[in-house]
Amino acid sequence: MPSLAVHGGKPVRETFLPYGRQWLDEADIDAVVQVLRSPWLTTGPKVDELEREFARTTGAGQAVAVNSGTAALHAAVFAAGIGPGDEVILPPLTFAASANAVLYQGGKPVFADCLPDTLLLDPAQVERRITPRTKAVIAVDYAGQPCDYDALQSLADRYGFMLIADACHSLGASYKGRQVGSLAGLNAFSFHPVKTITTGEGGLVTAADGELAKKMRTFRNHGISTDFRQRSEAGSWLYEMVALGFNYRLSDIACALGLSQLSKLSAMLARRREIAHLYNKAFSGNPAVMPLTQRPDCESAWHLYVVLLNAERLRVPRSQIFAALRAENIGVNVHYLPVYRHPYYQQLGYNYSLCPAAEAAYEEMLTLPLFPAMTGRDVNDVVMALEKVCTAYAK
Ligand SMILES: *Cc1c(COP(=O)(O)O)cnc(C)c1O
Predict the structure, then answer these.
(1) How far apart are CA 178 and CA 181, in angstroms?
(2) Is 195 marked active-site?
(3) Which residue of the set 46, 108, 135, 195 is catalytic?
(4) DSSP-assigned letters across all residues of 103-127
């Protein structure tokens, strides 16, 4: 048996393979250069164009581009009317920004547990957390698989709160034949380089309701009701600030990159699915690793490929498997520490143990590299490294 790199053996690969990375081509670069030669670097025509194209692609009514996924979540929380004293229910297995957006508006994040096999928000746990102060639920499409939107929307209708999708992982996924982006009242996306498509930094919110979209357009522009181009077209100098907003605008440079990336969405998704299926097949015979369950009525966007390690088959904890794989030059990761366990949330007074399913999964989870630019050889390296490490540490 080859000796583990962590014990001084030869690593499975010579160079480090990250868990995610952008996929750019010459067309993307040309699109950016064109804007750099144009009169509008920001608040120009590429913003509208990206919004229209994104809404068309996802079947959403309206799209509002902003400069990060975090800004998208903040704009959604603002549009939902969250303020001091309002409670927003969300899962703990997410990037901290999902909960931070609630704090930005003075609301209170309330954590509800996940289903143990998909790690998606459990509608039954959501219902247990509902109080008269519940104003919204943020559903996180963990790893790229949509949450159970029918169940969550029926709770939203029954109890009268807003359903917000944190769709930062799930651009291109579908639920019962419906596209992510049109599943919740407000749907937030990120264009960070590890996400499905990128603009460097960037984000966007889709909304079915035109009034909410208008509110978010004002919010991303300091709370001012018209932008520079609209005023210049109207030949007017007057602007009025009607709410406390932020500068969350996405530049035309970024939007041009986003448009070019969006035109390749289906190819990027196809490659992600292909790699996921190769992993599924490879791990079906490895009892030490259990991929997340995929619901038959959903198609995941495969932002992350997450496995749960089977403690009954391994002699060492996740931390040692993680270190051994990193030594083999496989960029495994962990998504995520339950949000309420971050020191900042602990200081706010959150209990350390709130969601047992999420906490148990957190101890066993590992994210494997998955991005469209991976070669067949890269995929094979991941499979071989996992085999090697699981065999060396088998019980
Ligand atoms: C990436 C991400 C965000 C934040 O997006 P940024 O563009 O990095 O601000 C929020 N929620 C989830 C689930 C994410 O994965």
Answers:
(1) 9
(2) yes
(3) 195
(4) HHTT-EEEE-PBPTTT--B-HHHHH
